[in-house]
Structure formats: C-alpha cells, structure tokens
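Note on ligand handling. Small-molecule inputs were canonicalized before submission; formal charges were left as drawn, and no protonation-state enumeration was performed. Where a ligand contained multiple stereocentres, the stereochemistry in the source SMILES was retained. For magnesium ion, this procedure yielded the string shown in the input block below.
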Amino acid sequence: MSDITQSGPVLAADGKPLKHSLNRALRRQKMRAMALILPLLAFVLLTFIVPIGQMLFRSVQNDIVQNTLPQTVIAIQDWDATSGEAPDEAAFAALAADFKIAVENKTHTRVGSRLNYETPGISSLFRKAGRKAKRWDLETDGPFKEQFLDIDEDWGDPAIWRTIQKFSPPVTSGYFLNAADMQLGDDGVEFRPENQQIYITLFKRTLFMSLVIMGACILLGYPVAWLLANLPSAKANVLLILVLLPFWTSLLVRTSAWKVMLQQQGVINDTLVWLGLVADESRLVMINNQFGTIVAMTHILLPFMILPMYSVMQTIPPSYLRAAKSLGATNWTAFWRVYFPQSVPGIGAGSILVFILAIGYYITPELVGGTKGVFISNRIAFHISSSLNWGLAAALGTILLVAVLILYWAYDKIVGIDNVKLG
Amino acid sequence: MAASNSNDAFVEFERVQKSYDGETLVVKDLNLTMPKGEFLTMLGPSGSGKTTCLMMLAGFETATHGDIRLGGISINNIPPHKRGIGMVFQNYALFPHMTIAENLSFPLEVRKLGKSEREEKVKRALDMVEMGAFGGRRPAQLSGGQQQRVALARALVFEPELVLMDEPLGALDKQLREKMQFEITHLAHNLGITVVYVTHDQTEALTMSDRVAVFNDGVIQQLAPPDQLYESPDNSFVAQFIGENNTLEGQVKEIANGIAVVQLDDGELIDCKPVNVDKPGERTRVSIRPERVEYNKDRLSDGAHTLKAEVLEFIYMGDIFRTRLRVAGNDEFIIKTRNAPDQVRLQPGQQIEIGWLPEDCRALDA
Ligand SMILES: Nc1ncnc2c1ncn2[C@@H]1O[C@H](COP(=O)(O)OP(=O)(O)O)[C@@H](O)[C@H]1O
Ligand SMILES: [Mg+2]
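Structure output:
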C-alpha cells in the first residue's frame, strides 16, 4: 500500500521499479517471438532484400573503369573532350601503364566490354592493344601515342577517349539512360537514333498488354466467381476444382498447349477452315504475336483473378440482393447498385495480383510472343544471360520495380488500398 | 384507411405447398386469409417453414403448388420487385456502401421519384423512427437498435401496403426488443399497413399481433388471436409452445355435458374440458396453466375434483411465487401465485390439495 502513496516510480513486489519489471517481461516475450520468425527473416533477407539491393546498386555501379585504368582516368581528367583531338602523350603513357597491369590481371577485356556498351568497337581495340602491351617496357618503349596509333588508327579518335572520360566516375547514369532509349551525348542527355530505340516501346507494350490481360481476366473471371459464390456448395466445389485445375499442370505444358491450339496448322485454324469461316490460304496468325501472348497469359493468370473475387463475393450475403429487389429494383439495378459495389474490393485485389504478375511475366511471352509479343522481362533475361550487360538488366529491372510501385501508389490514391480484400 | 373493405381478403394463401428438394414438403397445404390492416404473426420453432412462407409471399421462392393472392390478384408469376411489398430482414440487410439516407432513397430512386420528393420522404421516414439525425452515417456506424429502426424506415419509405418482417428483433437485447415491439405495433396501426411478422419468440407474438399463426412442421397448428391461443389452445403442441403449461397424461373415462372425466395414470380422476377427445377410452394429455391452479380450499367450488400434491420447491420471484409440485407422478408440475398480502407461502415437504375449474383444464390430443 505504501508504494502507491510514496512519490516516484511505482514499485513491483520485489522492490524494483514496475516499468523495469514490465519491460523485462515483455522483452522475453519479444525475444521468443523474434526467435520464431528468425529463419524466415534470414531467408527473406538473403534471397530477397539483398539481391534487390544489389540489383539497384548494379544499375548505377561503374567502378570498373576507375579500378582498371586508374592512371588514365587521372591523366585525362583535364582533357578537353570538345577539342576534336586525342589527348597528349601523357594520357597514352598512363594508359600503357594501366594496360600493363590490367593485362596481367586479365581485366582489360572486361573494361573493353563495359565500354563497348557505350561505343561499339572499343572491345576489339582493347583486346588488340592488350596483346601488344604485354611486351612493352614502360621505360624504353615510348612514346606510346605512336605505339597505340600503330596498333590501330582508332586510338586517335577522340570519341574513344570521350567514352573513357565520360564513364570514369564510379557511378553512372548510363544504364538508366540506355534503358530509357537515351544516351549521354556530347551536349548532354539525348535520345538515341530512331533505329536504336527499343526499350520505351517495350515498356509501353508491357504496360499495355498487362492492362489488356488484366481487363480480360476481369471480364472472364467475374461471372465465374459469381457462379462459384452463388452455387450450392457441392457444385461450387466441383467448379472450384476446374478453376484450380490449371495449377496442377506445368506452366510449360499449358503454354505449349496454346501453341498447339493457336498455330496456323493448329486446332482452331483447322476448325475454322473446316467450318468454312476462314479460307485455307489465309489461316489466322494467332501465335508468336501479341494476340497469342494475351490469350495464353489470360488463361494462366485467370485463377489469380477468380480466387480473390470469389472470396470477397462469398462474404456478400444474398439478403442484400433480395432486399434490393423487395425495394423495387430490377435484377440489373440490384446487381449494379448493390452487389457490384460490394464486390469491387475483390476486383481490386485480383487486378493488382494479375497486373503485377503479368508485368513481370517471362516464360509465356518467350514461348508464344514471337518478336511482337515479348515483354520487357524477356529483354532483361536476354541481358542477364546472353549479352551479359547486367548493369542494363538491373536498370531495366529497377525501372519496372518503380513503375509497379508508382501504379500501386496511384491505385491506393484512387481506389484506396483498404478497398482491397482477399476474403 | 380501408375500413370499408377490411373484411375482404387482402393476403391469401390457398392450398400452398413448398418443397426444396422434391422429397419433403417444407410447407404443407397452407391456407391463410388476412384482411387489410391486420398484424399477423407466424410463430413456430426453428425450421417450421415460417421464413419459407414469407419468401413465397415476397416472391423469392416459388410455391410448388397452390395459389398466393394479394388484393385478389394471383402473384405467383409477378417478380419480387413488382410486388411492392416492404420487407425487413433479420440481419437488416442495410447496404453497407450507402449512407442511411441513400439506403432510404434507394427504393424511391428506382421508382423514379424526383429529388425533392425523395428527400422529403426520406426525412419523414427517418423522423418517424426517430433517426432523423443519422442520415449521413453508414450502417456500420450505427448500433444494432438503430440499424433496426433504419431497416424499418426503409421498408416503409415507399409506402407499401404490405410489410413482411422476418425475426426483425432477433439480434437485439431484451430491453430494446421490448421497446421496439411496442414501436413497431404502433407504427403499423398508425399507418394502417398490413404486416406479416415472423418470430420464434412467443411473448413477442402474443404482445404484438392481432392474430397468431402457430407453425409446426410446415402446418398451421392454430390461427387465433393471442388470448384465445393462450387460453384455449387447440392441441398439445400449441399448449406446450405458448406460455408455461402443466401436462398430465391419462385416459378419458366418460364425456357428458361438455365435461370429460379423465383417469390419470396413477388412478385419480379429474374433470376437464374435452377439446381434442370425443369418446371414452381415448388417451389424452391434459393441459393446465400454472396460474389457474388453486390450492386454497375455500376458493374451489364444491364437488370439484382435487388432487394430492407434495411441495418440492418454493421460488420467490418478486411479483409472483412459483412452486414446484409432485402431482400424479409428475415432478415438474408448476403453480404460480400472485404475491398478495394474504397469500400462503408453501414450504417444501408440505402436503396440499390442488384443484381447478373444469374449463381451465383442457383434454387435448395425446
Ligand atoms: N434454400 C433452401 N434450400 C433447401 N432447404 C431449405 C431452404 N431454405 C429452408 N430450407 C429448409 O426448409 C425448412 C424450413 O425452413 P425455414 O422456412 O427457414 O424455417 P423457419 O424460418 O421457420 O426457421 C427447414 O428444414 C430448412 O432446412
Ligand atoms: Mg427463419
């Protein structure tokens, strides 16, 4: 009792401050909770957060030039790129010295490839110079300007030096500019020549086709979800199995099945020709283009639209529709004014799910997209595994990530993310 | 409002049957006629087919057989939205994405009323249920009782002549329920509307209705005003279902002058009013209301049959005393007596004699 009347902190039974005891008790609880989620946390950190961070970093990372050609970078720091002439002997001597070390470490070809992304041709210049530089003696073999020009005239081209100078800082916007079909020209940022612009078109196409696929999924999925939610449970379960059936077959099998269906000698064309709706010479081209990608992806992503819609619709009691009708609404009015608004959260959840899955989809467009129906992710895959331009792949990936986040934010502003329900 | 034709049938069920699965009849041969302005309650245990009857009337279920008429016109083929019947649902079914005012405005909008007219009617309806200040709120922001009032206002705002209510007070606590019972009856009588009210609560049915239809197993067991239902149940289901009731089993000895002599299973004889028995030898279940049992010898008429009873328990309930007796082998025989100054308080273990007027003791079906 005396605890209460005395001033100062309230004490626990053992005489220590009550706050202290409480904190200790809570800390133990928190530690136990942490221990339980620790494996998951570690897993997410290792497989998700770290790679994404690395990707974000790689899209601007450019320390290779500085690391491999440190002396050159310093020597051409003050060279006037607009002078129209190659730098003087000092720069060439520094380059020779850098080459000597780089060749030993076999890193000169890597810088070559890196700079080749910016100015085609550099890669071979570097390789040729590397072969010679191995045998040079830095003390005696000068002047190196002539030596380099001997190997290849192009060493006298200021464009080469401009590229080295432009990409000598450890951080670059080059990958991002490239991903947006732009480049760092002589007078600042400019668009690439028309015939080299591909990524903006690809981004636009990816967005547009993802939206079309999402729309198709809404239109096809809504009635199915409605049926599922309103059938007696025995029948609804059978239907649900049909909806989930695609999940039981491999993605590749499903996509290949669409190839069989849609190709010019395929089932659909054969049927149309047989019915006389389409002439044999003018069979429809439905695969290896946007149409094929949209059809196949709509089919694959449909369950992701139906399931959230279904679980939301299940929570709408049938008495609302009855109430609306008893108040004098026709079937359509009752649906549109009463049922539909309540099912919007399901549509929202399904749309976000389908859109985000679609925008990053890779396998299906790769298999049935041809050239006109591929997505940005196919290009990213190309840079990851074929052209090995990981920096550009990372920049493209980052732009995609940001685009999704912006769309998500916009959705939250317009519809409200609270309005998304998964059940 | 319709005093001149108040005896005309307004709502009619004629030989209506309903089956959901084609095997069992949920509603069996329902015949019911209601005049305009009547407050009729369908009362019965859960699963007895009350909601089904209401849904057939509202048009959400079709009758498997028979005819349902409204104002003399068969409505079997009229879709629900053209029937113009107001309805209050058990869970209120207020549209959660609309405000209260929008909810009330909805039936007026679909009837293409002008904006000013709508607003005026909505306001009047909300004021009628004392919810005028809540028009801008959403249903989720109201308490259960308030939602109930809004649901009522919404069912009345488009001025239907017939209003159906399916256990509208089921989710409210006892006090609020009693208040709303009172208000609904008043509203119904003031507006002159015809109401079909469904409940499984017999007190509610007795206090609110002009007539009560007691349902069991898809059949109306008795259709009568509340007092008749309570005092003269037609069969033992009704007697058991409505109010508290004592039953004794036995066999009819003789029937004469409107009085049946029944020999109880332990051999004693009592006088009863024959209701569902018509010849000696029949098994019967005798029903006596607890408040009609008398143990004060002075108040019993001479020559009345009496039974020996042993007091098992005495419960003081404030306004009344409730005493449990053992009578003719039945341990659950209850008597209720008013807490009057001269009333005797019985003690457990006491041996008494009980009796009643023959007309209060009804010999029903076994
Ligand atoms: N939609 C339905 N489908 C099949 N059987 C139903 C349906 N609705 C009610 N029933 C059955 O009909 C019987 C009566 O139900 P109901 O009319 O709801 O009774 P109450 O309202 O008196 O509780 C019950 O046995 C119930 O199981
Ligand atoms: Mg019911």
